[in-house]
Amino acid sequence: MELFVLGPVREILVVEDSSLDTKLVLWALDQNKRGKNVVTMDDGQQAMAYLREKGSGLHPALILLDLNLPKKDGWQVLSECKSDPALRGIPIVVFSTSHLDADIKRSYALGANSFVSKPFDLDDFQQAIELIENYWLRLSTPAL
Fold first, then answer.
1. In the chain, what are the domain boundaries?
2. Mean pLDDT throughout 111-131?
3. pTM score
4. 86 torsion bin: left (phi>0), alpha (psi -120 to 50), beta (else)
5. What class has domain 10-139?
């Protein structure tokens, strides 16, 4: 069996401070063998520095963002990305353990493209990551 990569290799930036959750996301992304590059950051300050030094047009195709991050929390990362003309077109999926209406509303008010509560079941977790990846990297047309 041969694996063919259709289209360009896309980058996903995972911003998550929990090493266990990062490993789960990487595992789930690896289950779908489509061409992608995954970069992980464990704090918001590091993520923003990475995004700003990438240069115009070289940004990730998707950001999976946790809310509870050290140094610069997910709210700040989301707000800064969506207020920066060079970054605002990057789809940001808030991927959080939170199920609170206030967190969901605040995320969308700050410009999140989607809010997904992390499933506790491993199969559901994998399916959530697969659906996010398929929608944002395969089905959706990115902002230019």
1. 10-139
2. 94
3. 0.87
4. alpha
5. alpha beta
